[in-house]
Protein 1
Amino acid sequence: MQPVGPPTVKPPVPPAPDSPTGTDAPAFAPPGPPAPRGSAADLVTDLTLFALFYGGLLIAFTEMGRRLGVYPAVWPTDALAVGVYFLMFRDAVGRLSAVVALVSIVVHLVAFGHDVGTALAAGCANALTFALVGWGCVRAGMERGALRSVPMVVSLGVVAVAGTLPGAIITAFVQFIDTNGAFGPLLLGWWIPEMASVVLLLPPFLLWHGRAEDVGLRGSEGSRPKFSREEELAFASLTLAASLVASAYYREPLLRDLGGAILLWFAFRLGLFATAVASSAYALAVLGLGMAQVWPQPLLLTDLVATMLRLQARLVLVMLPALLIAAIMAQRSRQQREVQEDRRRLAYALEGANDGIWDWHLPSDAVFFSARAHRMLGLDPDHAKKRLTDYGEVVHPEDLPAVAKSLKDHAEGRHLLFQAEMRARHRNGSWLWVLVRGKIVERDPVGRPTRAVGTVTDISQRKHLEAALEHAASHDPLTGLSNRAGFDRALEQARRRLVRDGALFAVVLIDIDYFKSVNDQHGHMAGDLLLTTAARRLQSAIRAGDLVARYGGDEFAIIAAGKSREEFAAMADRLHKHLSRPVEVEGLALPSSFSLGMAVADDRTLDAAALIAEADAALYAAKDAGRGTWRAVGIAARTAEEAAHETPRRQMLPHSGLRADRRPPL
């Protein structure tokens, strides 16, 4: 049967039979809360013992408070019960809440002689406080000893405030009905003791299971301290006790408040668990001295109950900052230990790697490069430079902005590691590609980086392979020209420049006439020779910035920029004449007949596919005209001789399938 109450943590999985330690957890894991015993008899025994414990607390603190005149201003019963729950149980919040309610009802009826309504209200209030505080701590993850962080300490404060309020409201409301007093003071009289007891007494219980790994800032110090941790802990404890003794002897509250400063000593140096224990002991001692009325009461607080409420509020304000600082120092200690472990791992990894290492002290600009890093650049390790700025000429100027940006992103926390690929100058003047990786391992108190370490790797071979693969993917292996994919990318870029800047360009499609006959009569080697010859001639004929590509088997394509149609017409005529020269190799004369089709992109709404279709239509027009000539689209004829090289647009439409109204006829 599942326990009634808030969701709780599941019990641990039973250990494997072959586990030598009886658990699958690693040997170095901190001890956790004990697993619940499974039999019904064990469960009944646990609940009975808890009921006796809670009943004893309830009677003891009630009678003590009444005799000392501070009831209910000091009420640690529920906080101590929750603490025992975290020490002894894991998933019984619902059952234990029911036990708390039942014990409270019985004690109020039998021991205190209250009526049934008052007893029921007291049982409901105590059970509700126990359940909400315990469930809130479980939901925040505190049952695993995880109070060693600032969010956990803040969560403890929230649980203390919100978890104790509903029970205090119930109790204050019942008392308000019985006494007809003011509801606000009654609520504060019940709420402040419950809330203060959670903050003052619960942290040692929450931190108990993780106390072994909580060594404080001392555990992360690199140098050997002058005093051992036990000696410093004893000295700090004696100092705290001495302040309380002096405060009681001289009846001086200022000496009592000095304990808050001593608690900061615990927080900064001795760990969160030691701080929690010292704070709880300090709070109990102060409350005991307060109930003994050691210090003179303020003139406005002649009632001892009001004095104790005020004193508990002051203790909460003293203890919470100490816990927060201790949590911050615990986080810092863990981070420093992690950095030290990272250094060791890096050293072990570099022993088996062929990488160079570097160590940079940012404030002084002092840098260290290993012998392997120097040999990578052809430098002599015995004449190493001492500052990073002395290596400024080693980095390629074009790579400096990217390297600086990567380092800045890492320093500002946007990236976990610093990583950059850059070109470095070798001693012989050549450039090699290196991969620089590193991490900031030290910062000053304000968070500025002071030290970074990392590696440098020669990746030149990988870069050359990537360049070769990229070239192979975008170039024709026979002619060395761009392939169809490279042409399509260049065409899209030219079209965007046309739309953006109005930059005219033309697309020229070139087809080798009778290419199949050359292959059939002279063989494929002759065909390849004709293709490579045409590619060289086209490359030598185009201008810088233009692109020539192998568009298909025996077809080439050119993207050429220009300023006028006349310029494009002169270019087409020059290309045709340059290609039409005879091709002779080892006494073999190959036919060199080429047909050219050109389309000028002067319409900003024209897409790439339509432009290719127009150039293809012009190419077919050139072939229909007898081959060995060129035709153009979008160029108006100026003379009869020039008009002989052009075909009216409507005559090309059957080949391209384009609409007749796309452009005006030529």
Protein 2
Amino acid sequence: MRWMTLLLAAVVGIAVHADQPTAAFSGFNDWLGSETRGVRIGADGRLRLAPNLRRVGQLPEGVIWSAVPDGSGGAYLSAGTEGKLFHYTGGQVKPLGQVKGGIVFALARLGQDLIVAPTGEGKLFRVTPSGDVKPFAEIDARIVWSLAVEGDAVIVAGGSEKGAVLVQAREGSSRRLAELADETAFTALAADGQGGWYLGSHGRGLVLRYSRQGDRLETLMDTPFEEVRALAVADGHLYIGADNGLTPKFSTGQLERREGYLQADSAVTARSAVLRLDKERVPETLWQSAQSQVYALTAWKGQLLVGTGNRSRLFSLPLGRTRDGDPFAVVQELGTAQATAFLPSGGDLLVVGSNPAELHLLSEAQATEGTLESKILRGAPLADWGRAYLDAETPTGTQVEFQFRTGSTETPDATWSPWTPPLRSGERPALPPSRFAQFRLRLSSTRGGATPIVESVTVHWAHRNLAPVWEGVDPMPPGLVITRTAPPDDIGIERVPLETQKLIPALGYMGAEKRSFRRGGQSFVFRVTDPNADALQFAIRLVPDRGAPLLLEKAWKERFFSFDTLPVPDGRYRLEVTASDAPTAPFNAALSSTWRTAPFTVDHTPPSIAELSALPEGDGVHIRFLARDETSVLKEGALSADGERWLQIVPEDRVFDQKEERFDVLVPRDALRGDRILVKVVDQHNNEQTAAVTVGAAIKR
């Protein structure tokens, strides 16, 4: 049976409001952020049931560094940072022994015994099946990355203080076969089938061949990576697993933990690749990734398996140059951080995982059930989750179930909703709005060899519109004007009050804004954001303490606003600003929020001066006057006794803190020029008044 649901309304909805999000999962990269168990992801993006994989063993240590077959379907393992050895046999993992030294990165089975190379010792040890440990040979290598058996000898690939070394060791003796001072170490080793050895290095990521004829070392390839971690030979072709940045992590004894739900590969620089040298030594890149790193390679059942981290995915690549089938696929996922080794186990394959340390058995038989949990879908910041449409083929005896869940944390936890019951394609989940969501596919088959095929999944949702969020509206000092271009009556800096000058950097531009001074101007700066990143417009009203509000702007677009207060009567006002996301939100979903400023005063009326007198008194002139303002507190007083310069004065109580202030000043007679004296007062809004008096006279107003 095959179904494909098509919804015309969804298409029409997208035309009406193009910003409504959808997520389509149909290509390989679309699925890479998912968690899979028993689901195969093909290069064409199709999902099928995978080869069966089951966990068969666990170790208390976090990382399994090396593994070799025991010859009976089991395996010898080195794990942890203290040289601990284990034996997997009969479905159980048992401690075998421990060798002195550091981490054991390499093992080899010589006869019934195990050859072990602990880091930093410069020695090989022989370990019997009963766990007895004794020295085997001293070697010129401080770190050993790979061991192989050649008759009664052991071939050692590693690094010394002088560079990369290849050593042959027999019991009680060893000799150096080859060295490469320019490389840190030989990190991979594989027999070439002609009595020689293929080698991979760390440093420049070289692929080399060591030939017995003349102990010759030949470079076959200079990869664009730092190191070659794995080599495999099949049908005369050499397969190479190359990485950046992996060997230093091994050296510290700490591999990275399993990564969470990933996004699709988006970085430009590849972290790893699988390359092939054919029989004519022609290189070809078969696969590369900006996220995964290659830990192990093996040829199995007509395919090359690639063990990767840090999601422990097993990739498969076709052997040879066949163009039939997928060029690559994800065939399984262990659920650990790394897949670090492959070992044959009868007709099956033992797969070694780390973080946590586990053993899994991969079978050629198809799994009967598999699940895929999608990458996390995100609302901005909340979403109403809509319908999902599943395109799948379900042969007789197979089934695909679709489920949905939501939550408020980026990583699913106990606070998330449970999975919904299985949903039909096009059925909307009954879930409340949330920030995050995820779907799950469950593929199953009751008929051997038959598998459902998922072609695509498309999920629809709408971001829940939220009202703009205000932080405040900041009033600027009276007279400061903010515009996109300079106002036509912009005046010079010398006429601007000092406190306003400090906010106008030489009347220059602040970004795209022009700040200047104009008498009667009043400006405000809006501090407001929209949770959905919608464009905003502002309705602006001037609200007096008494009387009806005055609409200044209906759909203002800027985050600042300036207006001329000269036509406005003196008094106390508030600015009411309503922010709306109507420019980009759907008409029937637009929201708004309002902010009212603290009261501010509009005052254009200058103070008055009364009771002004200038009477001789001794050697001076006594000047008295009363200043009063109807709206604002006075802030400045001054007098001029010579007609040229103003002398600042303070009121009788020495503090400018009232609308009415009385002044009483004695001026020395020798400071006078003529018999005329000027006085001046200024209010908080820079309105000023002056008056003149003749010495010996008094003026009453």
Protein 3
Amino acid sequence: MYSVAALLLAVAVPAGDLAAAEPLPQSRDPRLVIELFAADPDIVTPTGLDVDHAGRVFMIESNTHFPPEGYAGHPSDRLLVLRDQDGDGRAEKPVVFADGFVHAMSVAVRTSFDPDRPDTVLIATRKDVTALWDDDGDLVADRRRRILHLETPGNYPHNGLAGFAFDAHGHMYIGLGENLGAKYQLIGSDSTTLSGGGEGGNIYRCRLDGSQLQRFATGFWNPHANCVDAFGRLFSVDNDPDSLPPCRLMHIVAGGDYGYRFRNGRKGFHPFTSWNGEIPGTLPMLAGTGEAPSGIVAYESDGLPGEYVGNLLATSWGDHRIDRFRLVERGASFESVAEVLIQGGGNFRPVGLATAPDGSLFCTDWVLRDYKVHGRGRVWRIRRKSNRDDRPVVDVATVTAKTAVDQLVQLVGSPRLVLRRAAARALAGTVAGRQRMRQLISDRRTSTRTQVEVLWAMARVDPRVEDFGFLRPGAKRPRLAGGSTEVEIALIQLVGSPQFPFDVAKRNFLEDEQVAATLWVPDPLDLPGATRGHRARWATAAMRLLSLEQAIGFLEPDDPFLMAAVLARTRQDDVTGPKLLKAVRGALGAAARDARRQQTIRLLLVLSLLRQFNTPELTRQMLSDGQVDPVARRLVVQWVAESGQKTFRPRSPPFSTIPKSPP
């Protein structure tokens, strides 16, 4: 029998001794090790982090996330810089880069590549995205400017703005949580204003300076962290509505609807809520995650074993772990299963996750279950056991057009995405470099990842400086080597840009000789090893270049991402109601012997009519016609309910006409 004194001792473990009182987090991969890099009292309750080109860890210290009464910590959130200057594996005393934030969640450091201009540090709080610059190099911000602003009465700490991601084309992505359904206005640096409230969370896209703001995808609960992989694909982790597991890892596409609506109930149990693509027109998750996913990276470096390249890694605050996801092709998207990479005990609460220049990973650790700030905090480093720290790590900030062309050609083949991208852009800055790019893009020995980066860098070159001749008749054009799906998709997405001139309005992409000459294989069906996924992802990328008939012809049952792409095609300016009906009739005739395909085509028609060509007469007909597909009628009922169309509600007969029950 325990004594009272023994019980008191059992619960009175000092905060600083928690590491000794429980097992430390461990790697399930025996080749990796997780080590403590920083801890309280130097840092407390950390949220987001990023690692810059010099290996310095920029970390948010939260002091405003539900501070308890009498909280003795700093009065505002701070952005700290952690450095290991003596090489002992532990950070020295942090430097305060910037102060004065409230409900800060995410940070990102953007390398300038210009020695006369400082790096840009971005920080997302619940209501703002702010850019900061350290002009004199003392690791203290000298200037700051707000580039996005959220006007709303909502004030819950972590369902506002969070989750930076960046693509190769100068876009920034950021998530916005469900905001407890409150009305809001999100305002960009050029005064672009987007409004909403009650629709659930969204992911937005803008330029790096906060201009050209647009809603990119919707239907989330809280898309707290995002990343873009080597092929430009966007992924997000989404917290779940209260008690509705699992949380979601999602492949995000432009215009995608992921099914959650706050106005239908915060907990997500409403029949009009779709959590895994159950309702036609919404998109499913790629995989379930652990509870409260808060950080994600697409791994593209060389510090971990080679098979990690291309994997997604995500933290789980609620399940005390970091998971690994290997992507498996599924139609126009992917699927995966969570594999535990790092598992900790009850006081391992990983939040932010970032890749360092040497390929190791850093993650923040909230430590305790308490939502209120509590004075605890840690940062961990995950690295390969066979330490290769003696190898030189190239500082990406030094990779410029002044670097020797031969060295740039070597770097553009690096496993490190940031090095590949910097080297490709540097090659595009000189005549000699651009000549080598022509060779690289046409060489079958060039890896797919390198080809994609070279192609994207070539697209950035002004044709008045050098015209590469893509899609131009009679030109000395570079040809794409190999026929890789990802390289083809990268080129297709560039069609219509200055280096890839094409009259999109003709919609004759599949028949164009110049496209065929550049791609070698313009139709995915001609590729000997073409898979269903190859065809679907190829078609999804090409959708804006296809005729409506061609687009509908690519539809496949049970491929919601392909359905979403064709649905987006029906919303383009050249599509009218009669034109849509004509294309659907033709597609139904071509699929006369395939009932499932016909049903898919009819669902496309219903979704298109509801979203773009709806009339009261048509809606009433679809509700009352007994021959309308039950799934289609359900979509109509949901649309009527969610859009507030009261005129379509069934009218109850007068009370006096209701027959009485027999005695």
Protein 4
Amino acid sequence: MHTPLTNYWRKLIILALVIQLLVIIFAERDRQLSIHSHQREALQQLAPLQVRLEGLLTNNLIVLRALAAEVSLDPDISGQRFARLAKELIGKDLHIRHIALAPDLVIKYIYPLAGNEAAIGFDYRRSNSQLAAVQRAIERQAVTVAGPLDLVQGGRALIARVPVFHQQELWGVIAEVIDFQRLLNDTDYRDYQQHYRLSIRGTLDKIINVNDESFDYFNVLGDQQVWQQTYVSAKVSLPDSQWQIGLVPHSGRWWDWQSYTLTLAIGTLLNLLICFFLGKLLFTQKQLRHALATITYQAHTDNVTQLPNRADFIRKLDQRVNEATHTSTSFAVLFLDLDHFKEINDTLGHESGDRLLKELAQRIQQHLSPLDTLARLGGDEFVVLLHHCETDDSAEQCAKTIQKALRQSLTFAGFNLTISASIGIAQFPQHGLSSSTLLKHADLAMYAAKQSGRQTSYVFNEALRHKAERQMQMHSAILEGIKRQQFYVLYQPIINVAEPHAGMAKVEALIRWRHPQYGDISPADFIPLAERTGAILELGEWLLQQVCHDWQQLAANGLPLTIAINRSLREFNDPDKGKHWLTELSKVGMPAQSLVVEITESLLMRKRQRQLKILHDLRQAGVSLAIDDFGTGYSSMNYLREYPIDCIKIDRSFLKDCPQDQRQVSLLEALIKVALSLELNIVAEGVENPEQLALLKQLGCQQAQGFYLAKPMPASELQAFFKTLG
């Protein structure tokens, strides 16, 4: 009886044999391709040799044919005329050793004569060795080529003969001796011998198939063993015969033995590795099943709180929607966002923040029924599926219970914390019939709860949906307004109030929007929306370019002012943003010292290295940095010392009831003293009357801005305003 383990090994061995067979087939196919490739390459290299050899032979035989034509016209040609013609025809680029005229088959003239005198009077009919070749030429009445033959005087030569007829009667023959070695040398055949063994053989038969071995071949040149191996060849046509040039690699193989062996070795090694890993898999199945279970769990679970994640919650919500649709029941979705958790997380650190999230999740879970589902969507956002919740009142009661549980103070990482949440509520089926709609509407209700002051809950209504749609329309209108130049910039002067004769220290750039349909839209309406939707990036880029253009115009008119410009937290998420701003300044020749970047306290509270690096780079380049609306956020004296801040702008709310409200005056005085002790410049915003201005001077504030001092104005009016200051 075969156990599952035995069957597994049997299958593994069969698989190994199949893979090895495939390796052999692949290696053999690769070898055949290599053979064909090398043979094709050799044939391509052989073609020029064939052409050169045929061409050189043809050039040498042209002399023979030309003399034959001349003699057939003038059979009584004299020796002098023959010598003159031969000298003219035999050029230096030919390989003719000598040429002889044999009327009546007896050599009468020979050129050149020197060294060949003994051949005069030679009768072909008395030489059995040459008579057959002469008769062959006469029978064919065409040029014949014999050889190569070993010459008595040394060397090897081809002998070409042509019969000459006069008035259809045989006159005789003309013989031409061609220096075979010189002819070969001019073909550069030795170049081929670097990589190949070369051989040339000839036959008196007409070669149709170069691989046909049935002909009677004779050796012309080279090693005849070439023809016993796998060769490539090309034929060379002669007047009465043909030669065949053959090439074989020196190794005798048209394929790379090392490459073939390496392919087999690598394939075999891979086969062994595959079998090894498959064998190892046999012993790791348990671990694999455990790993798959872990992956499945992680795919549906938040790794911080161990609660269901977004994907798993939506799956469960889809199931509840289908169930409630068929049973005509109701349920509710609660969308929770922890108030100010980002600031807490940045203060405690992410590791402590994760442990805090886990603690808060446990608090919420304790106040839910076993049927309810709590999930973490990410960050500080949670959702609750209340499986049986028929009314909005029931959902709100559950939300209040969760709020109460979260607000219980706890000591964590050395801090005494009180956490609250903003909760949005959406009810099925009143507020949506699908999972995505319910989540979206609960999310909108949560944002409404935040805008209502946080620490509260809000039930979705149609007004929220309409508001969200209006916000999307406003977002599109902002982007369209930038394209259509609907935005413009006003500049509000900032006055030096500490000097005896007040002067303009700088101006603040204020963006405005004049919509063609809705008229002037307040920045308080479109700036927060742009921050939420991301359109603030396009607005910020447009504002910077417009400020640079206006500064260039003012500088050309002799008023190179320092301009303060507000920058959004979102813009600092781009690590190259600071370099980009400096580049925009350099395009118009605006010094970095002429720009003040105003940021909010929240940017420094986050302590993100990317954002802080941008601030340091700007400060090092000469740009001044100011904190706008100082005192309205989580103000901390620490970051005023740690970060490269030059100026704080005290929010207008601190001047509102001054100088009548003494407590407000004391608070204002404390802020100014702290800034002065840190050697920071101070700008007070919202100066509306002379009493406030006098108070600021008394408290030591250096600069101020407000409607009492100067209203925002176009860049074109700054020149005239500057003159009014003297």
